[in-house]
Amino acid sequence: xxxxxxxxxxxxxxxxxxxxxxxxxxxxxxxxxxxxxxxxxxxxxxxxxxxxxxxxxxxxxxxxxxxxxxxxxxxxxxxxxxxxxxxxxxxxxxxxxxxxxxxxxxxxxxxxxxxxxxxxxxxxxxxxxxxxxxxxxxxxxxxxxxxxxxxxxxxxxxxxxxxxxxxxxxxxxxxxxxxxxxxxxxxxxxxxxxxxxxxxxxxxxxxxxxxxxxxxxxxxxxxx
Length: 224
What we know:
By secondary structure, the protein is of the alpha/beta class. Helices cover 15% and strands 29% of the residues. Strands 6-8-11-14-17-20-22-23 form an eight-stranded mixed β-sheet, with helices on one face. The protein has a five-stranded mixed β-sheet with strand order 3-4-2-1-5, sandwiched between helices.
Protein backbone atom coordinates (compact mmCIF):
# COMPACT_ATOMS: atom_id res chain seq x y z
CA UNK A 1 0.00 0.00 0.00
CA UNK A 2 1.62 3.25 -1.11
CA UNK A 3 1.03 6.35 0.94
CA UNK A 4 0.36 10.01 0.41
CA UNK A 5 0.57 10.62 4.17
CA UNK A 6 2.84 13.40 5.42
CA UNK A 7 3.25 11.90 8.92
CA UNK A 8 6.07 9.36 8.68
CA UNK A 9 7.61 6.86 11.06
CA UNK A 10 10.98 5.11 10.80
CA UNK A 11 11.18 1.49 11.93
CA UNK A 12 14.38 1.12 13.92
CA UNK A 13 16.37 3.21 16.36
CA UNK A 14 19.99 2.47 15.49
CA UNK A 15 22.50 4.18 13.23
CA UNK A 16 20.75 2.94 10.08
CA UNK A 17 17.65 4.75 11.30
CA UNK A 18 19.66 7.95 11.74
CA UNK A 19 20.95 7.66 8.16
CA UNK A 20 17.39 7.13 6.94
CA UNK A 21 16.23 10.18 8.90
CA UNK A 22 18.79 12.40 7.17
CA UNK A 23 18.08 10.88 3.75
CA UNK A 24 14.36 11.54 4.10
CA UNK A 25 14.99 15.11 5.21
CA UNK A 26 17.45 15.70 2.35
CA UNK A 27 14.87 14.51 -0.16
CA UNK A 28 12.05 16.58 1.33
CA UNK A 29 12.78 18.86 4.31
CA UNK A 30 9.04 19.32 4.97
CA UNK A 31 8.43 15.63 5.70
CA UNK A 32 7.09 15.16 9.21
CA UNK A 33 9.02 12.30 10.81
CA UNK A 34 7.13 11.92 14.06
CA UNK A 35 8.76 8.91 15.72
CA UNK A 36 11.04 5.90 15.57
CA UNK A 37 9.49 2.52 16.35
CA UNK A 38 11.05 -0.70 17.70
CA UNK A 39 9.84 -3.82 19.49
CA UNK A 40 10.77 -2.72 23.01
CA UNK A 41 12.06 0.82 23.55
CA UNK A 42 13.66 1.98 26.76
CA UNK A 43 11.55 4.25 28.94
CA UNK A 44 11.82 7.84 27.73
CA UNK A 45 14.09 6.89 24.82
CA UNK A 46 14.58 9.49 22.09
CA UNK A 47 16.52 9.71 18.83
CA UNK A 48 17.09 12.83 16.73
CA UNK A 49 14.74 14.67 19.08
CA UNK A 50 11.90 12.22 18.35
CA UNK A 51 10.32 9.62 20.62
CA UNK A 52 11.26 5.97 20.24
CA UNK A 53 8.01 4.06 20.71
CA UNK A 54 6.83 0.45 20.81
CA UNK A 55 5.54 -0.55 17.38
CA UNK A 56 2.50 -2.45 18.66
CA UNK A 57 1.49 0.48 20.89
CA UNK A 58 1.75 2.79 17.90
CA UNK A 59 -0.38 0.55 15.67
CA UNK A 60 -3.03 0.29 18.37
CA UNK A 61 -3.03 4.06 18.85
CA UNK A 62 -3.74 4.71 15.16
CA UNK A 63 -5.87 1.67 14.28
CA UNK A 64 -9.19 3.59 14.24
CA UNK A 65 -7.73 6.81 12.85
CA UNK A 66 -8.49 7.33 9.14
CA UNK A 67 -5.29 9.39 8.80
CA UNK A 68 -2.65 6.75 9.38
CA UNK A 69 1.09 7.47 9.32
CA UNK A 70 3.33 5.80 6.75
CA UNK A 71 6.32 3.63 7.63
CA UNK A 72 9.76 2.80 6.29
CA UNK A 73 12.12 0.10 7.60
CA UNK A 74 15.65 1.01 8.70
CA UNK A 75 17.01 -2.08 10.43
CA UNK A 76 20.01 -4.05 9.25
CA UNK A 77 18.58 -7.50 9.98
CA UNK A 78 16.62 -8.82 7.01
CA UNK A 79 14.43 -11.20 9.01
CA UNK A 80 13.38 -8.51 11.48
CA UNK A 81 12.55 -6.08 8.67
CA UNK A 82 10.32 -8.75 7.14
CA UNK A 83 8.58 -9.56 10.41
CA UNK A 84 7.84 -5.92 11.20
CA UNK A 85 6.68 -5.16 7.66
CA UNK A 86 4.23 -8.04 7.84
CA UNK A 87 2.91 -6.81 11.19
CA UNK A 88 2.41 -3.30 9.80
CA UNK A 89 0.77 -4.40 6.53
CA UNK A 90 -1.58 -6.78 8.32
CA UNK A 91 -2.67 -3.86 10.49
CA UNK A 92 -3.53 -1.89 7.34
CA UNK A 93 -0.83 0.79 7.46
CA UNK A 94 0.97 2.20 4.38
CA UNK A 95 4.66 2.47 3.53
CA UNK A 96 6.71 5.15 1.83
CA UNK A 97 10.03 5.06 -0.03
CA UNK A 98 13.16 7.20 0.33
CA UNK A 99 15.08 7.28 -2.96
CA UNK A 100 17.98 9.62 -3.56
CA UNK A 101 17.53 11.92 -6.57
CA UNK A 102 20.49 10.37 -8.44
CA UNK A 103 18.23 7.40 -9.16
CA UNK A 104 15.87 8.05 -12.08
CA UNK A 105 12.88 5.89 -11.18
CA UNK A 106 11.29 6.30 -14.62
CA UNK A 107 14.23 4.45 -16.21
CA UNK A 108 13.64 1.34 -14.10
CA UNK A 109 11.33 -1.59 -14.81
CA UNK A 110 9.94 -1.64 -11.28
CA UNK A 111 10.59 0.03 -7.94
CA UNK A 112 8.53 -1.37 -5.07
CA UNK A 113 7.08 0.22 -1.96
CA UNK A 114 8.97 0.90 1.24
CA UNK A 115 12.28 1.05 -0.63
CA UNK A 116 15.36 2.92 0.58
CA UNK A 117 18.09 3.89 -1.90
CA UNK A 118 20.71 5.94 -0.09
CA UNK A 119 22.88 8.86 -1.15
CA UNK A 120 25.67 8.22 -3.63
CA UNK A 121 24.11 5.08 -5.08
CA UNK A 122 23.75 5.00 -8.87
CA UNK A 123 21.33 2.71 -10.67
CA UNK A 124 21.42 2.84 -14.45
CA UNK A 125 18.35 1.41 -16.17
CA UNK A 126 15.88 -1.45 -16.55
CA UNK A 127 16.31 -2.71 -12.99
CA UNK A 128 13.74 -4.32 -10.72
CA UNK A 129 13.95 -3.22 -7.06
CA UNK A 130 11.66 -5.28 -4.83
CA UNK A 131 9.49 -4.16 -1.94
CA UNK A 132 11.01 -3.18 1.42
CA UNK A 133 14.58 -3.45 0.18
CA UNK A 134 17.41 -1.24 1.38
CA UNK A 135 20.34 -0.20 -0.82
CA UNK A 136 22.96 1.68 1.17
CA UNK A 137 25.36 4.48 0.28
CA UNK A 138 27.77 4.43 -2.64
CA UNK A 139 26.55 1.36 -4.51
CA UNK A 140 26.49 0.92 -8.29
CA UNK A 141 23.86 -1.23 -9.96
CA UNK A 142 24.08 -1.75 -13.69
CA UNK A 143 21.43 -2.49 -16.31
CA UNK A 144 18.82 -5.23 -16.05
CA UNK A 145 19.56 -6.28 -12.48
CA UNK A 146 16.81 -7.84 -10.39
CA UNK A 147 16.75 -7.23 -6.64
CA UNK A 148 14.05 -9.04 -4.69
CA UNK A 149 11.98 -8.17 -1.62
CA UNK A 150 13.55 -7.56 1.81
CA UNK A 151 17.08 -7.33 0.42
CA UNK A 152 19.74 -5.38 2.30
CA UNK A 153 22.72 -4.24 0.21
CA UNK A 154 25.45 -2.68 2.35
CA UNK A 155 27.59 0.36 1.41
CA UNK A 156 29.96 0.27 -1.53
CA UNK A 157 28.64 -2.80 -3.35
CA UNK A 158 28.86 -3.16 -7.13
CA UNK A 159 26.52 -5.17 -9.32
CA UNK A 160 27.34 -5.63 -13.00
CA UNK A 161 24.59 -6.16 -15.57
CA UNK A 162 21.87 -8.82 -15.23
CA UNK A 163 22.71 -9.81 -11.67
CA UNK A 164 19.80 -11.38 -9.77
CA UNK A 165 19.57 -11.00 -6.00
CA UNK A 166 16.63 -13.06 -4.74
CA UNK A 167 14.42 -12.23 -1.73
CA UNK A 168 15.77 -11.80 1.80
CA UNK A 169 19.46 -11.65 0.89
CA UNK A 170 22.00 -9.68 2.94
CA UNK A 171 25.02 -8.33 1.03
CA UNK A 172 28.01 -7.17 3.07
CA UNK A 173 30.00 -3.99 2.53
CA UNK A 174 32.05 -3.77 -0.64
CA UNK A 175 30.87 -7.01 -2.25
CA UNK A 176 31.06 -7.19 -6.06
CA UNK A 177 29.20 -9.29 -8.61
CA UNK A 178 30.17 -10.15 -12.17
CA UNK A 179 27.43 -10.11 -14.85
CA UNK A 180 24.58 -12.63 -14.82
CA UNK A 181 25.22 -14.29 -11.47
CA UNK A 182 22.25 -15.21 -9.26
CA UNK A 183 22.20 -15.12 -5.46
CA UNK A 184 19.64 -17.50 -3.99
CA UNK A 185 16.96 -16.57 -1.46
CA UNK A 186 17.99 -16.01 2.14
CA UNK A 187 21.71 -16.03 1.48
CA UNK A 188 24.43 -13.84 2.98
CA UNK A 189 27.30 -12.46 0.90
CA UNK A 190 30.19 -11.52 3.17
CA UNK A 191 31.87 -8.12 3.08
CA UNK A 192 34.44 -7.81 0.31
CA UNK A 193 33.35 -10.97 -1.48
CA UNK A 194 33.65 -11.18 -5.25
CA UNK A 195 30.78 -13.27 -6.58
CA UNK A 196 31.75 -14.98 -9.84
CA UNK A 197 29.21 -17.83 -9.89
CA UNK A 198 25.68 -18.50 -8.67
CA UNK A 199 25.09 -18.66 -4.92
CA UNK A 200 22.74 -21.39 -3.62
CA UNK A 201 19.79 -20.35 -1.42
CA UNK A 202 20.35 -20.01 2.33
CA UNK A 203 24.13 -20.11 2.25
CA UNK A 204 26.94 -17.87 3.44
CA UNK A 205 29.54 -17.09 0.80
CA UNK A 206 32.82 -15.25 1.29
CA UNK A 207 36.19 -14.69 -0.32
CA UNK A 208 37.74 -13.76 -3.65
CA UNK A 209 36.28 -15.48 -5.53
CA UNK A 210 33.35 -16.18 -3.21
CA UNK A 211 32.78 -19.76 -2.12
CA UNK A 212 30.18 -21.36 0.13
CA UNK A 213 31.27 -21.34 3.77
CA UNK A 214 28.18 -22.80 5.45
CA UNK A 215 24.45 -23.41 5.26
CA UNK A 216 22.30 -20.89 7.12
CA UNK A 217 19.54 -21.56 9.62
CA UNK A 218 17.81 -19.64 12.39
CA UNK A 219 16.79 -16.01 12.80
CA UNK A 220 18.58 -12.90 13.96
CA UNK A 221 17.84 -11.52 17.40
CA UNK A 222 18.77 -7.92 16.59
CA UNK A 223 15.87 -5.48 16.93
CA UNK A 224 17.58 -2.19 16.11
